[in-house]
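Morning F.,

Quick status update on the modeling queue. The single chain you submitted on Monday has been processed. Sequence for confirmation:
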Amino acid sequence: MKYYPSSRIIKNQQSNPSEFTDPQGKEYIGPYYTTFKGDSFTGADPTKGASIPLTPIAIDEIQQSMDPFTLASSKFDTLKHVKNNIQLTNPEPFTPRPTEADYKTGKIIRYFARQRNGTTFKIVEISNQTHNNLVNNTNGANFALWKSIALFWRISGPLHNEKVNNITTRSGIIDTNQRILDQAEKSFIGIKQYLSDLQQFARVS
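Structure tokens below.
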């Protein structure tokens, strides 16, 4: 069983269709967790399930609509909400405000929503609650048009990795955030452009 400190994983996430494949290349839909390095594994956390590594499914940048399965499923869910007179709402923008405790820990978790269709891939930063609503299809969140992601974001430490004998002794703000964005871009196209400032909220030490 893999072990990660709770501060170094994002637990209890739920994958959407066309988001991940397993080592056999089959689409994976179910609970997963993400490590601080940006890698994702099956199971709600390392203690639940086999922790099988998952591979993000790259999205064609010129795709202008969801895949047929997701589109059909989303239309059905949307119609069901309309029938029940539930008004679906788009995500509201949110700006995180790191605390002194966050700076002491060295990182925060940020949440983002992106339109599922279109050529511009509009992205907006959202709150934890909005992220949960989109993932769980609750509280009238417009999950048919938006998908969301949670990312670690380093906010304190040196700007770049510090090494001794080619071994990283302190993780750098820029190097860490770049690595996380490189991984996230595979399934969340546009996030690297949206988060172009790798030192946002940073406190260099």
